UniProtKB/TrEMBL annotation, chains A, B:
This is Phosphate-specific transport system accessory protein PhoU. Keywords: Cytoplasm, Phosphate transport, Transport. Plays a role in the regulation of phosphate uptake. One of its GO terms (cellular component) is cytoplasm. The lineage of its organism: Bacteria, Bacillati, Actinomycetota, Actinomycetes, Pseudonocardiales. Belongs to the PhoU family. It is found in: Cytoplasm. GO terms for biological process: intracellular phosphate ion homeostasis; negative regulation of phosphate metabolic process; phosphate ion transport. NCBIfam families: phoU_full. Homodimer. Residues 18-103, 122-203 form the PhoU domain. Pfam families: PhoU.
Protein backbone atom coordinates (compact mmCIF):
# COMPACT_ATOMS: atom_id res chain seq x y z
CA UNK A 1 0.00 0.00 0.00
CA UNK A 2 2.62 2.57 1.02
CA UNK A 3 4.84 1.63 -1.90
CA UNK A 4 2.00 1.85 -4.44
CA UNK A 5 1.17 5.23 -2.93
CA UNK A 6 4.67 6.56 -3.44
CA UNK A 7 4.91 5.25 -7.00
CA UNK A 8 1.60 6.91 -7.90
CA UNK A 9 2.58 10.14 -6.15
CA UNK A 10 5.82 10.17 -8.12
CA UNK A 11 3.85 9.72 -11.36
CA UNK A 12 1.64 12.62 -10.38
CA UNK A 13 4.72 14.80 -9.79
CA UNK A 14 6.01 13.80 -13.26
CA UNK A 15 2.71 14.94 -14.80
CA UNK A 16 2.82 18.26 -12.92
CA UNK A 17 6.44 18.84 -13.94
CA UNK A 18 5.54 18.20 -17.60
CA UNK A 19 2.62 20.61 -17.28
CA UNK A 20 4.98 23.32 -15.94
CA UNK A 21 7.16 22.97 -19.05
CA UNK A 22 4.05 23.05 -21.26
CA UNK A 23 2.92 26.39 -19.85
CA UNK A 24 6.50 27.74 -19.88
CA UNK A 25 6.66 26.95 -23.62
CA UNK A 26 3.20 28.43 -24.19
CA UNK A 27 4.22 31.71 -22.52
CA UNK A 28 7.51 31.78 -24.42
CA UNK A 29 5.73 31.38 -27.78
CA UNK A 30 2.95 33.80 -26.82
CA UNK A 31 5.52 36.46 -25.86
CA UNK A 32 7.35 35.94 -29.16
CA UNK A 33 4.02 36.19 -31.02
CA UNK A 34 3.26 39.41 -29.14
CA UNK A 35 6.64 41.06 -29.68
CA UNK A 36 7.16 39.95 -33.28
CA UNK A 37 3.51 40.24 -34.41
CA UNK A 38 3.66 36.59 -35.46
CA UNK A 39 0.17 35.27 -36.18
CA UNK A 40 1.11 31.64 -36.74
CA UNK A 41 2.88 31.47 -33.36
CA UNK A 42 -0.18 33.03 -31.74
CA UNK A 43 -2.43 30.44 -33.41
CA UNK A 44 -0.11 27.69 -32.19
CA UNK A 45 -0.50 28.81 -28.57
CA UNK A 46 -4.27 29.23 -28.96
CA UNK A 47 -4.84 25.78 -30.44
CA UNK A 48 -2.38 24.22 -27.96
CA UNK A 49 -4.24 25.39 -24.85
CA UNK A 50 -6.63 22.43 -24.88
CA UNK A 51 -3.60 20.19 -24.27
CA UNK A 52 -2.92 22.09 -21.05
CA UNK A 53 -6.57 21.65 -20.05
CA UNK A 54 -6.27 17.91 -20.79
CA UNK A 55 -3.10 17.69 -18.73
CA UNK A 56 -4.89 19.29 -15.81
CA UNK A 57 -7.84 16.89 -16.08
CA UNK A 58 -5.30 14.06 -16.23
CA UNK A 59 -3.54 15.29 -13.05
CA UNK A 60 -6.89 15.62 -11.26
CA UNK A 61 -7.94 12.12 -12.28
CA UNK A 62 -4.60 10.74 -11.07
CA UNK A 63 -5.05 12.57 -7.76
CA UNK A 64 -8.64 11.31 -7.42
CA UNK A 65 -7.51 7.75 -8.07
CA UNK A 66 -4.79 8.13 -5.46
CA UNK A 67 -7.25 9.44 -2.86
CA UNK A 68 -9.89 6.81 -3.65
CA UNK A 69 -7.57 3.79 -3.75
CA UNK A 70 -4.93 4.70 -1.17
CA UNK A 71 -6.99 6.86 1.22
CA UNK A 72 -3.89 8.72 2.41
CA UNK A 73 -4.00 10.61 5.70
CA UNK A 74 -1.95 13.36 7.38
CA UNK A 75 0.96 14.69 5.30
CA UNK A 76 0.30 12.21 2.49
CA UNK A 77 -3.22 13.55 2.12
CA UNK A 78 -2.00 17.15 2.09
CA UNK A 79 0.57 16.25 -0.55
CA UNK A 80 -2.12 15.00 -2.94
CA UNK A 81 -4.29 18.05 -2.30
CA UNK A 82 -1.29 20.34 -2.92
CA UNK A 83 -0.88 18.59 -6.28
CA UNK A 84 -4.54 19.25 -7.15
CA UNK A 85 -4.08 22.94 -6.33
CA UNK A 86 -0.84 23.07 -8.32
CA UNK A 87 -2.60 21.58 -11.37
CA UNK A 88 -5.24 24.30 -11.09
CA UNK A 89 -2.59 27.05 -10.97
CA UNK A 90 -0.75 25.55 -13.93
CA UNK A 91 -3.94 25.41 -16.01
CA UNK A 92 -4.54 29.06 -15.16
CA UNK A 93 -0.99 29.88 -16.30
CA UNK A 94 -1.86 28.22 -19.62
CA UNK A 95 -4.98 30.41 -19.86
CA UNK A 96 -2.89 33.53 -19.26
CA UNK A 97 -0.45 32.56 -22.06
CA UNK A 98 -3.57 32.03 -24.19
CA UNK A 99 -4.78 35.55 -23.36
CA UNK A 100 -1.41 36.99 -24.47
CA UNK A 101 -1.61 35.02 -27.75
CA UNK A 102 -5.19 36.17 -28.34
CA UNK A 103 -4.16 39.81 -27.85
CA UNK A 104 -1.44 39.29 -30.49
CA UNK A 105 -3.98 37.75 -32.88
CA UNK A 106 -6.67 40.39 -32.22
CA UNK A 107 -4.46 43.29 -33.35
CA UNK A 108 -2.69 41.46 -36.18
CA UNK A 109 -1.23 42.65 -38.57
CA UNK A 110 -0.78 45.65 -36.28
CA UNK A 111 1.62 45.28 -33.36
CA UNK A 112 -0.15 45.30 -29.98
CA UNK A 113 2.68 47.07 -28.21
CA UNK A 114 4.37 50.37 -29.06
CA UNK A 115 8.11 49.81 -29.64
CA UNK A 116 9.16 51.69 -26.51
CA UNK A 117 7.30 49.37 -24.11
CA UNK A 118 8.42 46.16 -25.84
CA UNK A 119 11.61 45.86 -23.73
CA UNK A 120 9.47 45.66 -20.56
CA UNK A 121 7.49 42.78 -22.02
CA UNK A 122 10.63 41.08 -23.31
CA UNK A 123 11.89 41.13 -19.74
CA UNK A 124 8.59 40.14 -18.07
CA UNK A 125 8.19 37.33 -20.60
CA UNK A 126 11.70 36.07 -19.93
CA UNK A 127 11.23 36.05 -16.15
CA UNK A 128 7.71 34.53 -16.40
CA UNK A 129 9.00 31.65 -18.55
CA UNK A 130 11.94 31.20 -16.16
CA UNK A 131 9.53 31.04 -13.22
CA UNK A 132 7.47 28.29 -14.88
CA UNK A 133 10.67 26.33 -15.59
CA UNK A 134 11.84 26.85 -11.99
CA UNK A 135 8.48 25.53 -10.81
CA UNK A 136 9.22 22.39 -12.83
CA UNK A 137 12.60 22.05 -11.10
CA UNK A 138 11.00 22.50 -7.68
CA UNK A 139 8.35 19.87 -8.47
CA UNK A 140 11.04 17.41 -9.61
CA UNK A 141 13.67 18.09 -6.96
CA UNK A 142 11.52 19.24 -4.01
CA UNK A 143 14.37 21.71 -3.47
CA UNK A 144 13.21 24.24 -0.88
CA UNK A 145 16.08 26.64 -1.70
CA UNK A 146 15.16 26.66 -5.40
CA UNK A 147 11.60 27.50 -4.42
CA UNK A 148 12.88 30.59 -2.58
CA UNK A 149 14.55 31.96 -5.71
CA UNK A 150 11.13 32.08 -7.36
CA UNK A 151 10.01 34.72 -4.88
CA UNK A 152 12.86 37.03 -5.90
CA UNK A 153 12.12 36.56 -9.60
CA UNK A 154 8.44 37.22 -8.97
CA UNK A 155 9.39 40.51 -7.27
CA UNK A 156 11.16 41.44 -10.50
CA UNK A 157 7.93 40.89 -12.50
CA UNK A 158 5.99 42.92 -9.93
CA UNK A 159 8.51 45.77 -10.20
CA UNK A 160 8.30 45.89 -14.01
CA UNK A 161 4.51 45.64 -13.79
CA UNK A 162 4.37 48.61 -11.38
CA UNK A 163 6.80 50.60 -13.48
CA UNK A 164 4.62 50.04 -16.57
CA UNK A 165 1.84 51.98 -14.87
CA UNK A 166 4.07 55.00 -14.39
CA UNK A 167 5.02 54.75 -18.08
CA UNK A 168 1.46 54.66 -19.41
CA UNK A 169 0.07 57.14 -16.86
CA UNK A 170 2.76 59.68 -17.82
CA UNK A 171 1.28 62.88 -19.23
CA UNK A 172 3.59 62.54 -22.22
CA UNK A 173 2.48 58.97 -23.10
CA UNK A 174 2.21 59.40 -26.86
CA UNK A 175 0.39 56.20 -27.89
CA UNK A 176 -3.17 56.94 -26.84
CA UNK A 177 -5.77 55.10 -24.81
CA UNK A 178 -6.07 51.89 -26.84
CA UNK A 179 -2.37 51.06 -26.48
CA UNK A 180 -2.49 51.91 -22.77
CA UNK A 181 -5.43 49.55 -22.28
CA UNK A 182 -3.57 46.73 -24.05
CA UNK A 183 -0.45 47.36 -21.97
CA UNK A 184 -2.57 47.34 -18.79
CA UNK A 185 -4.20 44.00 -19.55
CA UNK A 186 -1.05 42.33 -20.85
CA UNK A 187 0.95 43.51 -17.85
CA UNK A 188 -1.64 41.95 -15.59
CA UNK A 189 -1.52 38.64 -17.48
CA UNK A 190 2.25 38.38 -16.92
CA UNK A 191 1.96 39.39 -13.28
CA UNK A 192 -0.73 36.76 -12.61
CA UNK A 193 1.25 34.10 -14.49
CA UNK A 194 4.25 34.80 -12.25
CA UNK A 195 2.07 34.74 -9.11
CA UNK A 196 0.71 31.32 -10.02
CA UNK A 197 4.22 29.96 -10.65
CA UNK A 198 5.21 31.10 -7.16
CA UNK A 199 2.07 29.52 -5.76
CA UNK A 200 2.95 26.17 -7.39
CA UNK A 201 6.45 26.30 -5.90
CA UNK A 202 5.07 27.25 -2.47
CA UNK A 203 2.76 24.28 -2.45
CA UNK A 204 5.67 21.98 -3.26
CA UNK A 205 7.66 23.48 -0.38
CA UNK A 206 4.69 22.87 1.81
CA UNK A 207 4.68 19.24 0.73
CA UNK A 208 8.33 18.94 1.79
CA UNK A 209 8.33 21.03 4.94
CA UNK A 210 4.70 21.01 6.08
CA UNK A 211 4.92 24.81 6.18
CA UNK A 212 4.13 27.41 3.55
CA UNK A 213 7.13 29.74 3.02
CA UNK A 214 6.51 33.20 4.37
CA UNK A 215 3.54 32.04 6.40
CA UNK A 216 3.08 30.74 9.87
CA UNK A 217 1.58 27.37 9.20
CA UNK A 218 -0.50 25.12 6.99
CA UNK A 219 -3.55 27.13 8.04
CA UNK A 220 -2.41 29.82 5.60
CA UNK A 221 -2.84 27.52 2.62
CA UNK B 1 -19.67 6.14 9.23
CA UNK B 2 -21.97 7.14 6.37
CA UNK B 3 -24.10 9.25 8.68
CA UNK B 4 -21.11 11.06 10.15
CA UNK B 5 -19.94 11.68 6.59
CA UNK B 6 -23.22 13.31 5.59
CA UNK B 7 -23.38 15.46 8.71
CA UNK B 8 -19.83 16.70 8.11
CA UNK B 9 -20.52 17.29 4.43
CA UNK B 10 -23.58 19.33 5.34
CA UNK B 11 -21.46 21.41 7.75
CA UNK B 12 -18.96 22.03 4.98
CA UNK B 13 -21.80 23.22 2.68
CA UNK B 14 -22.97 25.60 5.43
CA UNK B 15 -19.45 27.07 5.65
CA UNK B 16 -19.24 27.51 1.85
CA UNK B 17 -22.69 29.13 1.75
CA UNK B 18 -21.64 31.59 4.48
CA UNK B 19 -18.46 32.35 2.56
CA UNK B 20 -20.53 33.15 -0.58
CA UNK B 21 -22.54 35.71 1.39
CA UNK B 22 -19.32 37.14 2.86
CA UNK B 23 -17.85 37.82 -0.60
CA UNK B 24 -21.22 39.08 -1.91
CA UNK B 25 -21.27 41.63 0.93
CA UNK B 26 -17.61 42.53 0.31
CA UNK B 27 -18.31 43.21 -3.38
CA UNK B 28 -21.43 45.19 -2.53
CA UNK B 29 -19.52 47.43 -0.12
CA UNK B 30 -16.52 47.72 -2.45
CA UNK B 31 -18.79 48.81 -5.32
CA UNK B 32 -20.46 51.41 -3.07
CA UNK B 33 -17.02 52.64 -1.95
CA UNK B 34 -15.97 52.89 -5.60
CA UNK B 35 -19.06 54.69 -6.84
CA UNK B 36 -19.49 57.00 -3.86
CA UNK B 37 -15.80 57.64 -3.18
CA UNK B 38 -16.34 56.38 0.36
CA UNK B 39 -13.01 55.78 2.07
CA UNK B 40 -14.37 54.24 5.25
CA UNK B 41 -16.35 51.63 3.29
CA UNK B 42 -13.22 50.85 1.26
CA UNK B 43 -11.23 50.40 4.49
CA UNK B 44 -13.94 48.12 5.84
CA UNK B 45 -13.63 45.81 2.84
CA UNK B 46 -9.82 45.91 2.98
CA UNK B 47 -9.63 45.03 6.66
CA UNK B 48 -12.40 42.43 6.28
CA UNK B 49 -10.60 40.36 3.63
CA UNK B 50 -8.62 38.38 6.19
CA UNK B 51 -11.93 36.96 7.43
CA UNK B 52 -12.56 35.55 3.95
CA UNK B 53 -9.08 34.03 3.97
CA UNK B 54 -9.80 32.51 7.39
CA UNK B 55 -13.12 31.10 6.14
CA UNK B 56 -11.31 29.46 3.23
CA UNK B 57 -8.70 27.90 5.54
CA UNK B 58 -11.57 26.71 7.72
CA UNK B 59 -13.34 25.08 4.73
CA UNK B 60 -10.12 23.41 3.63
CA UNK B 61 -9.46 22.07 7.11
CA UNK B 62 -13.02 20.69 7.29
CA UNK B 63 -12.55 19.05 3.88
CA UNK B 64 -9.18 17.59 4.95
CA UNK B 65 -10.73 16.18 8.11
CA UNK B 66 -13.54 14.65 6.07
CA UNK B 67 -11.11 13.01 3.66
CA UNK B 68 -8.79 11.79 6.39
CA UNK B 69 -11.44 10.42 8.72
CA UNK B 70 -14.11 9.18 6.29
CA UNK B 71 -11.96 8.28 3.26
CA UNK B 72 -14.87 8.81 0.86
CA UNK B 73 -14.73 7.29 -2.62
CA UNK B 74 -16.53 7.82 -5.95
CA UNK B 75 -19.12 10.63 -5.93
CA UNK B 76 -18.57 11.33 -2.23
CA UNK B 77 -14.89 11.97 -2.88
CA UNK B 78 -15.64 14.25 -5.82
CA UNK B 79 -18.10 16.17 -3.66
CA UNK B 80 -15.43 17.00 -1.11
CA UNK B 81 -12.94 17.98 -3.79
CA UNK B 82 -15.57 20.20 -5.44
CA UNK B 83 -15.96 21.92 -2.08
CA UNK B 84 -12.19 22.52 -1.87
CA UNK B 85 -12.24 24.08 -5.36
CA UNK B 86 -15.29 26.16 -4.48
CA UNK B 87 -13.54 27.52 -1.37
CA UNK B 88 -10.57 28.53 -3.55
CA UNK B 89 -12.87 30.38 -6.01
CA UNK B 90 -14.69 32.11 -3.16
CA UNK B 91 -11.42 33.30 -1.62
CA UNK B 92 -10.41 34.66 -5.02
CA UNK B 93 -13.75 36.50 -5.23
CA UNK B 94 -12.91 38.10 -1.89
CA UNK B 95 -9.53 39.17 -3.31
CA UNK B 96 -11.24 40.77 -6.31
CA UNK B 97 -13.60 42.73 -4.04
CA UNK B 98 -10.44 43.78 -2.14
CA UNK B 99 -8.86 45.00 -5.40
CA UNK B 100 -11.94 47.14 -6.10
CA UNK B 101 -11.79 48.61 -2.58
CA UNK B 102 -8.06 49.31 -2.92
CA UNK B 103 -8.66 51.15 -6.20
CA UNK B 104 -11.25 53.32 -4.41
CA UNK B 105 -8.78 54.01 -1.59
CA UNK B 106 -5.83 54.70 -3.92
CA UNK B 107 -7.56 57.56 -5.74
CA UNK B 108 -9.38 58.99 -2.70
CA UNK B 109 -10.53 61.79 -2.35
CA UNK B 110 -10.73 61.77 -6.15
CA UNK B 111 -13.33 59.48 -7.74
CA UNK B 112 -11.79 56.56 -9.62
CA UNK B 113 -14.48 56.51 -12.29
CA UNK B 114 -15.70 59.33 -14.55
CA UNK B 115 -19.44 59.94 -14.00
CA UNK B 116 -20.44 58.64 -17.44
CA UNK B 117 -19.03 55.12 -16.86
CA UNK B 118 -20.45 54.81 -13.33
CA UNK B 119 -23.77 53.32 -14.55
CA UNK B 120 -21.86 50.37 -16.10
CA UNK B 121 -20.19 49.66 -12.80
CA UNK B 122 -23.42 50.09 -10.87
CA UNK B 123 -24.88 47.40 -13.11
CA UNK B 124 -21.85 45.08 -13.07
CA UNK B 125 -21.65 45.43 -9.31
CA UNK B 126 -25.33 44.58 -8.91
CA UNK B 127 -25.08 41.48 -11.10
CA UNK B 128 -21.79 40.37 -9.51
CA UNK B 129 -23.31 40.57 -6.01
CA UNK B 130 -26.41 38.75 -7.25
CA UNK B 131 -24.20 35.99 -8.70
CA UNK B 132 -22.42 35.48 -5.38
CA UNK B 133 -25.80 35.30 -3.61
CA UNK B 134 -27.11 32.85 -6.23
CA UNK B 135 -24.01 30.72 -5.64
CA UNK B 136 -25.03 30.62 -1.98
CA UNK B 137 -28.52 29.42 -2.96
CA UNK B 138 -27.10 26.74 -5.22
CA UNK B 139 -24.76 25.54 -2.46
CA UNK B 140 -27.67 25.36 0.00
CA UNK B 141 -30.37 23.95 -2.28
CA UNK B 142 -28.26 21.98 -4.82
CA UNK B 143 -30.82 23.32 -7.30
CA UNK B 144 -29.50 22.59 -10.78
CA UNK B 145 -31.96 24.99 -12.43
CA UNK B 146 -30.83 27.86 -10.18
CA UNK B 147 -27.26 27.10 -11.21
CA UNK B 148 -28.23 27.58 -14.87
CA UNK B 149 -29.53 31.10 -14.21
CA UNK B 150 -26.02 32.07 -13.11
CA UNK B 151 -24.72 31.49 -16.62
CA UNK B 152 -27.21 34.02 -18.06
CA UNK B 153 -26.30 36.62 -15.45
CA UNK B 154 -22.61 36.03 -16.11
CA UNK B 155 -23.25 36.70 -19.82
CA UNK B 156 -24.67 40.06 -18.77
CA UNK B 157 -21.43 40.94 -16.93
CA UNK B 158 -19.41 39.82 -19.97
CA UNK B 159 -21.53 42.00 -22.26
CA UNK B 160 -21.07 45.10 -20.10
CA UNK B 161 -17.36 44.31 -19.78
CA UNK B 162 -16.99 44.08 -23.58
CA UNK B 163 -19.03 47.23 -24.10
CA UNK B 164 -16.76 49.11 -21.68
CA UNK B 165 -13.86 48.53 -24.06
CA UNK B 166 -15.72 50.18 -26.92
CA UNK B 167 -16.46 53.12 -24.59
CA UNK B 168 -12.86 53.69 -23.50
CA UNK B 169 -11.34 52.92 -26.93
CA UNK B 170 -13.62 55.50 -28.58
CA UNK B 171 -11.66 58.32 -30.19
CA UNK B 172 -13.81 60.79 -28.31
CA UNK B 173 -13.09 59.29 -24.87
CA UNK B 174 -12.54 62.54 -22.97
CA UNK B 175 -11.08 61.27 -19.67
CA UNK B 176 -7.55 60.42 -20.67
CA UNK B 177 -5.31 57.42 -20.21
CA UNK B 178 -5.29 57.14 -16.41
CA UNK B 179 -9.08 56.83 -16.20
CA UNK B 180 -9.10 54.32 -19.06
CA UNK B 181 -6.51 52.18 -17.26
CA UNK B 182 -8.58 52.22 -14.06
CA UNK B 183 -11.73 51.28 -16.00
CA UNK B 184 -9.84 48.44 -17.73
CA UNK B 185 -8.59 46.91 -14.49
CA UNK B 186 -11.83 47.39 -12.58
CA UNK B 187 -13.86 45.90 -15.43
CA UNK B 188 -11.64 42.87 -15.34
CA UNK B 189 -12.06 42.48 -11.56
CA UNK B 190 -15.86 42.33 -11.92
CA UNK B 191 -15.66 39.96 -14.87
CA UNK B 192 -13.36 37.56 -12.99
CA UNK B 193 -15.55 37.77 -9.85
CA UNK B 194 -18.58 36.75 -11.95
CA UNK B 195 -16.63 33.91 -13.61
CA UNK B 196 -15.65 32.51 -10.23
CA UNK B 197 -19.26 32.64 -9.00
CA UNK B 198 -20.31 30.61 -12.05
CA UNK B 199 -17.48 28.18 -11.42
CA UNK B 200 -18.67 27.64 -7.82
CA UNK B 201 -22.22 26.94 -9.06
CA UNK B 202 -20.93 24.58 -11.76
CA UNK B 203 -19.04 22.52 -9.28
CA UNK B 204 -22.15 22.21 -7.12
CA UNK B 205 -24.14 21.04 -10.17
CA UNK B 206 -21.40 18.55 -10.86
CA UNK B 207 -21.76 17.22 -7.33
CA UNK B 208 -25.50 16.70 -7.89
CA UNK B 209 -25.50 15.43 -11.47
CA UNK B 210 -21.98 14.03 -11.93
CA UNK B 211 -21.71 16.27 -15.00
CA UNK B 212 -20.40 19.80 -15.43
CA UNK B 213 -23.05 21.96 -17.16
CA UNK B 214 -22.05 22.86 -20.68
CA UNK B 215 -19.43 20.15 -20.79
CA UNK B 216 -19.46 16.51 -21.78
CA UNK B 217 -18.29 14.87 -18.60
CA UNK B 218 -16.36 15.06 -15.38
CA UNK B 219 -13.15 15.02 -17.44
CA UNK B 220 -13.79 18.66 -18.24
CA UNK B 221 -13.32 19.65 -14.61
Amino acid sequence: MREAYHVELEQLAVKLAAMSLQVADAMELATKALLETDLSLAEQVISGDSKVDDARADCEEAAYALLALQAPVATDLRTVLAAIHAAESLERMGDLALHVAKAARRRHPEAVLPDDVKPYFTEMGKVAVKLARQAETVIKTKDVEAARTLEADDDQVDDIHKHLFTVIMDKNWPHGVAAAVDVTLLGRFYERFADHAVSVARRMVFVVTGRMPGYGSAEDL
